[in-house]
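Chapter summary example.
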Amino acid sequence: ASETKMSLDLCRRKGWLVQKAEYWLPSFRIYDVITVAQQVCAGTAAKADLSKILSDYRSNPGARKDLFGFVDIVALTGEEGIIAIQSTSHSMISTRFNKIRIECQEAAMKWLESGGKIQIWGWHQPKGPRTVWICTVRNVSIADVNPPKPF
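The structure predicted for these 151 residues follows.
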């Protein structure tokens, strides 16, 4: 199962109301294909260019987009408030943390300033039975996203 599915399942077991917030753009790269096809027809690109872009498109026909660049799941928890969850593998927690902190800083700050929480849920299987999955939760705070500036 994917990390997002496992996170959704865990949220539901906690009794939270959850919604997947990432979405798939299946035709994200179709514009590249159309552009090169037009160039081939106009004689400004070779057929080999079109073959390459079509091959690339077939191997990666779209892109996954997260809400605000970092939210996979929105959870309405009741007592804990509203949580934006970035779901990933355990080994990618620090990478996702840095992405939120740097690339998505503005959106993350607005989310936190609006009273929301941000958590990164990293999933891994410890040694032993392969049916067990463990979720490590990393909270992201305003101080993480907007550290104090040095003098």
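To summarize the output: The beta strands are 17-20, 23-25, 63-65, 73-76, 82-89, 117-124, 134-140.
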